[in-house]
Design goal:
It is a single chain. The chain is mainly β. It is built from 10 helices and 85 strands. A hairpin with a 5-residue loop joins β81 and β82.
């Protein structure tokens, strides 16, 4: 239906409104419009046979409507408001009422329209009166007499209390101009006011028209409300019946749902997209468990910042199995106020919540931080009526901080669906059918209870006791490549409030089949039930010394680790050696790369009690396809003859003896399998035996297990972490600190660093007057990306005092402090360095020579793998001598210079918490320096002098010692760490700016970069000087 009065009858009214519209288009003023209307009325008064049955009433701006003006209800009565008006009493109008000009209605009375109330001018405000729209006899645009009642919305209409009687509706009218601007319609409801739909009502309108409900009022639906156009609302919509939204819904900070006080059964049907933000809510859930929300044909559903959908009966579906809905839920809103105590901030998250059975079908669901899917229950906490949230043909991605939750015994079910746990949590019992799967992609993810015949894919390093909250069951457990899954368990713990003991369910896992492409580690004797295990190429099954009651198949290229450990009696005496085993072991029936078995012996293994016959399975099939791999720590012999690479068939029935290899064989073996020289020596020393130091023995056991399991690279990484640092950290740290201090001092000298504040000769100055004090901030970042990469951040402060002894000679002294943080892998070193220095310069002319001498002492606090730590001191002496000449060129000064820098570094011996005694070390570095600097003074218009500078130099280490360390372990073994040195050749570059604030104060800002192969050092300089 089109509500353009140019199409309405009778004919003379059509002409009138055509002329009015024409006048508006030509922007005629109100008087011209009025004259035009009057002329038209006179001219047409005798031209229409229907004139006598019609009434046209215009209310001019400023009209006051009294009792005498309320009788316009006979025939096709037409009322037109041409401006503001005031009601003095309640009035009833019919059949056509038009807000022709922008109109404000006031008077706090009630206006009833039995027919159409049409807004043609934007911006009208009728909130000063109550409105009621009733059905009346009207003639529609098709020329038919009908009984209808409508509020015809142009745009930007503000209303107060409005009652839409049964059968009436709101029509969204769009002009050609509206279409051109793609303008939507806005209905603003005034503060404290309410628009009530009292029966079967509707909101519909022109194609693609959309309605926005705005303001501080509300909407109440008491029957069946159908909205055929897109709806956006920031006002609350209270529903006591059924609301159907055919073109989607957008809510911002508002409430759409049942009135909790009424407990009426309510329904909300939405077709299309849904967007909720800022704690917007859709609710159909009464205290007596009534209410339904159904969202169909959804393309995008978005819930942000504490927004929710709550329903007793909840159904959400995308368009089809191939055209899924995209559902995004995330964001906590602390101001939502749904928490009952400070520990329940999760209640202010964004979520979808069903109380009865919930269905989400054909959807891709992204649960972001603060997003949740929740299945509640009907009934009460004491007597819950449980429900199930079924995710069908859907994909769910659960990010860190997101949650799938079920309460009061309810659960979640996957049917042809998948869940990706990317750090999020499933706090529910979740059942997985044979066509569904859960992918654990983050070690921080957990599942309360798992059930069903589907698949659990492990794509992270986790364990049964970490992943699950109770006993769980799955059809297929798949440990994917690159992941490690530990099959451990937890016993049940009974709650004891008197002793402060929290209860806990038993935690274990049952699986029909386990597919291993990564690493699966059996940590308990049959606590977990795995019926069949299939180890794929590259996969590792490590049963330790446990009895694993599973039928195991080793495919080509698969590995099985069997552990051997001492069995001790109550007195701690070794009685025998026990080993791990499986139920049935089967090799591949194809001829490819054979599978391998590693025997992994405990570091304290008593080889004297080694069994005569080794049994690793109740039965072995295709044993010729399974090889006993060589052990890098132990030798194998049968009948006194050393054996290598025998198959399980060849081992069957034979007595196997085991003997330990010496350290040199171990070092050579691991070096041949990927460890470097330092790592090989460290590994050989640690596996030589236990020491009684708990940290050292823990390292020994880990390295021993890794090497025997064939993971030499893992053992090498561990050896690198626990050994003294091989990277040139001390050289870098001392050199970096020395360079910072020398750079700060060099700003007081000719040549040298940028931001130089060196003072020229002044024959008029006295000796006392030519003294100065200075302070300089030090900021440094360095990075070494060699084979033992590290990075350093440091800050500090240098200060000094100086004076001229005569016009040619200057001397000074000072102190500097720096704090540095060094990071290398899991190793962190905190360094506090104190430096005392002296310096001097002789400059009789443009030629100069200067020198610096320093002594620094540093405290190193090192923390590394497994809680190991050590503290040690590093001291150094440094000397530098430079000479150069100032060439004056067009107002600039170019200074080539050359010199030598010497540093001696001494590191004291120390013992770390693992009992590693690290020897003292001393190293020398002599560096040649050749470079040049250019600077020029400028005087600004305010009289301030500024001096930009730039410097470039090349350095070469004539002497460059490596920092080697000898280490003695608590078990009596020793190893050496051969340290690296920085590359000999380097480049130094810098820029700076000095400003003479006044005759006494200078401020300098500069940057110095030092670059060598694989090494970068960046220093910032901020200097202030006061001249006496």
């Amino acid at each position: 239906m089109v509500y353009d009065f140019r199409t309405l009858r009778p004919p003379f009214v059509q002409v009138v409104f055509c002329l009015l519209t024409l006048g508006q288009k030509r922007k005629l003023n109100h008087m011209k419009n009025k004259l035009l209307v009057t002329t038209a009325l006179v001219g047409l008064a005798f031209a229409s046979s229907a004139m006598a049955a019609d009434e046209l009433k215009e209310y001019e701006a400023g009209s006051v409507i009294s009792a005498d003006d309320t009788g316009h209800t006979k025939g096709d009565t037409r009322i037109s408001f041409m401006g503001d008006a005031k009601l003095e009493k309640d009035v009833t109008f019919g059949n056509y009422v038009t807000l022709h000009e922008k109109t404000n209605l006031t008077g706090n009375k009630k206006m009833t329209v039995t027919g159409y109330l049409t807004q043609t001018a934007a911006g009208s405000d009728v909130s000063g009166v109550d409105l009621e729209i009733q059905k009346g006899k009207v003639n529609n645009s098709q020329g038919s007499d009908v009984t209808e009642g409508e509020l015809v919305l142009g745009n930007n209409l503000t209303v107060g209390n409005v009652n839409m009687a049964d059968g009436t509706g709101i029509y969204l009218y769009k002009t050609e101009e509206d279409y051109a601007k793609n303008a939507d319609k806005t209905l603003t409801i005034a503060d404290g006011k309410e628009v009530t739909f009292a029966g079967n009502n509707y909101i519909k309108g022109a194609k693609d028209a959309a309605l926005t409900l705005d303001g501080k009022g509300s909407v109440a639906n008491q029957g069946e409300l159908t909205v055929s156009n897109a709806l956006t609302s920031s006002v609350d919509i209270k529903n006591a019946g059924t609301i159907t939204l055919d073109k989607g819904y957008t809510g911002n900070g508002n409430y759409l749902g049942n009135d909790f006080a009424s407990n009426k059964d309510t329904t909300i049907n939405i077709k299309g997209d849904v967007s909720l933000d800022n704690n917007a809510r859709i609710v159909a859930a009464t205290a007596n468990d009534l209410g339904s929300v159904k969202i169909t044909d959804a393309g995008n559903i978005t819930l942000r910042n504490g927004s929710t959908i709550d329903a007793v009966n909840l159904n959400i579906s995308g368009k089809s199995a191939d055209e899924k809905a995209n559902i995004t839920i995330g964001g906590n809103n602390p101001s939502a106020g749904r928490e009952t105590n400070k520990n329940e901030q999760w209640r202010n998250n964004s979520y979808i919540l069903g109380y009865g059975d919930t269905s989400i079908e054909n959807a891709v669901i992204n649960l972001e931080n603060g997003g949740m899917l929740i299945q509640g229950a009907k009934g009460t906490n004491e007597a819950p009526d449980t429900g199930t949230m079924t995710l069908n043909n859907s994909e769910v991605k659960v990010a860190e901080g997101a949650l799938i939750k079920a309460t009061n015994g309810s659960d979640v079910a996957l049917e042809n669906a998948s869940v990706d746990l990317n750090g999020g949590i499933i706090d529910a019992k979740i059942s997985v059918d044979t066509n569904s799967k859960i992918n654990v992609n983050n070690a921080g993810s957990t599942i309360k209870t798992l059930a069903g015949a589907g698949t659990l894919n492990i794509n992270a390093n986790t364990s049964v006791s970490t992943l699950f909250g109770s006993a769980s069951k799955i059809g297929i457990l798949a440990v994917k490549e690159g992941s490690t899954f530990i099959l451990d368990s937890l016993d049940e713990v009974k709650e004891n409030a008197d002793e402060g003991i929290d209860g806990r369910d038993a935690v274990k896992l049952e699986a029909g089949k386990m597919e291993v492409s990564g690493t699966a580690i059996v940590a308990d004797n049959n606590a977990n039930t795995i019926t069949n295990t299939n180890v794929n190429k590259g996969g590792i099954l490590d049963v330790g010394s446990n009895k694993f009651a599973s039928t195991v198949t080793l495919n080509d290229g698969a590995t099985l680790n069997i552990g051997f450990a001492n069995e001790v009696n109550d007195e701690g005496e070794v009685t025998t050696v026990k080993n791990g085993s499986v139920n049935t072991l089967t090799g591949s029936d194809t001829e490819g790369d054979k599978a391998g078995v590693n025997f992994v012996f405990a570091a304290d293994l008593d080889t004297e009690n080694f069994p005569d016959q080794v049994s690793i399975a109740n039965s072995i099939k295709n044993g010729e396809q399974i090889v006993l791999n060589n052990n890098l720590l132990f030798d194998y012999a049968i009948g006194g003859e050393k054996v290598d690479g025998i198959t399980l068939d060849q081992l069957d029935g034979q007595g196997l003896t085991v003997s330990k290899k010496d350290s040199s064989e171990v070092a050579a073996g691991v070096a041949a399998n990927g460890a470097n020289g330092n790592q090989a020596g460290t590994i050989a020393a640690f596996v030589d035996g236990l020491s009684g130091n708990a940290q050292a023995d823990n390292i020994t056991n880990q390295i021993s297990t890794l090497v025997q399991s064939g993971n030499v690279k893992g053992a090498a990484r561990l050896a690198k972490e626990v050994a003294p640092v091989a990277a040139p950290v001390a050289q870098s740290q001392v050199t970096e600190t020395t360079n910072q201090v020398f750079g700060a001092v060099a700003t007081r000298l000719s040549g040298g660093s940028v931001s130089s504040a060196a003072e020229g000769k002044s024959s008029g100055d006295s000796v006392f007057e030519r003294a100065a004090m200075w302070v300089q901030g030090l900021f440094n970042k360095s990075k070494y990306d060699g084979s033992n990469d590290f990075k350093t951040d440091s800050t500090g402060l240098a200060l000094g005092a100086e004076k001229y002894l005569n016009s040619d000679v200057k001397v000074g002294a000072g102190y500097a402090y720096t704090n540095s943080d060094v990071k290398q892998g899991d190793r962190k070193i905190d360094v506090d360095t104190h430096t005392a220095f002296v310096y001097g310069e002789y400059k009789p002319s443009d030629w100069y020579v200067n020198g610096i001498a320093s002594y620094n002492w540093g405290d190193y606090d090192e923390k590394k793998y497994g809680g190991l730590s050590g503290k040690y001191d590093v001291n150094s002496i440094a000397l530098q001598a430079m000479t150069g000449y100032d060439f004056h060129m067009n107002g600039a000064v170019v200074t080539p210079e050359a010199g030598l820098r010497y540093i001696n570094i001494h590191q004291d011996s120390y013992t770390d918490t693992a009992g590693q005694r690290v020897s003292e070390n001393s190293s020398d570095y002599l560096t040649g320096i050749v470079g040049a600097k250019i600077k020029k003074d400028y005087t600004l218009s305010n009289g301030m002098n500024i001096r930009p500078e730039a410097r470039l130099a090349m350095t070469y280490d004539l002497v460059n010692d490596n920092s080697n360390a000898s280490v003695m372990l608590a078990n009596g073994s020793a190893y050496q760490v051969r340290g690296e040195a920085l590359d000999r050749f380097g480049v130094e570059a810098g820029v700076g700016l000095t400003a003479e604030v006044d005759d006494n104060v200078e401020v300098s800002l500069g940057y110095e970069g030092k670059f060598r192969d694989h090494y970068k050092d960046h220093t910032g300089l901020l200097n202030a000087k006061y001249k006496f």
